[in-house]
Design a protein that fits this description.
Tumour Suppressor Smad4, 9 helices, about 300 residues, alpha+beta
């Protein structure tokens, strides 16, 4: 039997108004929830993203059964540790630039559809990734994508959405330098040189699955890389990722593993869903069923 949704009137809404659509969506979201019978006990427009975790933690500590978070992938990752293996359920309004995590669990990207999911959906247990003790919801990147995440300006994201990453990536790809990787995974040791490394907990990178077999609740991390160091290769890899055709690359490397040890030379920054928070060397693992979240009835989870 699927877990039941928390009762109406027990929800809190916390919106990151610095996210791409957060500021404009806050009041319409409140109205839409009231119209659909969700009697919010509290609603917070949070202007400083780093305060999101504090507000969410306070609501969970006060025993709020359902905490609805408005924002993008970075927002979900930021607050995910507050929900880790707890009793509170996360509701999600995808208001960011990429919203890959929401896509991975089937939550509609339009506000009306996301609110409908809160009313008509079900509660599912999904995984969270862990890198160097920090939880992440969807994916981490090392190399060009991490540089792009760091260099893409907020105004550019607000104006152009996901295309902002494309424009920044095209500008930076020509001067990016390759690095050496060593990955200790469940199936052995992998050594290679590359420009780009993705380690995903979720299944969506951008707008397409990182790999057809990747799932957000299978207890596995998915690694994607294309070994090689020439500049033409980085342009080919970047183009394939943006087009969702990375599995068509003949030399692509995919690894599935419960645990990973990553070393790079030189040391590289690790981007977690849009924010640089740690560096290599890094230890990765999975918090199996670490997050309870409201998903559409059509969501099909992995067997336990």
């Amino acid at each position: 039997m699927e877990p039941q949704l928390p009762v109406a009137g027990s929800a809190a809404l916390v919106v990151n108004t610095a996210s791409r659509r957060g500021r404009d969506a806050f009041e319409p979201a409140c109205r839409a929830m009231l119209e659909r019978g969700i009697d919010l006990g509290a609603a917070y427009p949070v202007r400083k993203p780093k305060q999101m975790l504090r507000v969410v933690e306070r609501e969970i500590h006060q025993g709020r059964p359902l905490v609805i978070v408005g924002g993008g992938d970075g927002t979900v990752t930021m607050v995910s540790r507050a929900f880790l293996r707890g009793q509170s359920v996360m509701g999600l309004l995808p208001l960011g630039t990429g919203n890959s995590f929401a896509q991975g669990v089937g939550i509609p990207l339009d506000l009306a559809g996301a609110v409908r999911t809160l009313v008509e959906g079900k509660v599912a247990d999904v995984d969270l990734g862990i890198v160097n003790g920090r939880t992440f919801a969807n994916f981490t990147t090392v190399g060009l994508s991490a540089v792009v995440a760091r260099e893409t300006k907020p105004l550019l994201k607000r104006l152009f959405g996901p295309v902002a990453y494309v424009l920044t990536g095209i500008f930076l790809a020509g001067r990016h330098r390759a690095f050496d990787c060593r990955i200790d995974a469940d199936d052995g040791v992998h050594r290679f040189r590359t420009h780009q490394l993705v380690i995903a907990n979720g299944r969506i990178f951008g707008a397409t699955p990182i790999h057809p077999g990747a799932k957000v609740d299978d207890g596995l991390l998915t690694v994607f890389a294309v070994p090689g160091a020439n500049r033409r290769q980085i342009q080919r890899t970047w183009t394939a990722l943006l087009a969702g055709r990375q599995t068509d690359l003949e030399d692509a490397l995919f690894i599935s593993s419960k645990h990973l040890m990553l070393e790079t030379k030189p040391r590289r920054a690790i981007d977690m869903d849009g924010e640089i928070v740690t560096r290599t060397p890094a230890t990765f693992s999975v918090a199996r069923n670490g997050l309870r979240i409201v998903v559409p009835q059509s969501f099909v989870g992995s067997p336990p």
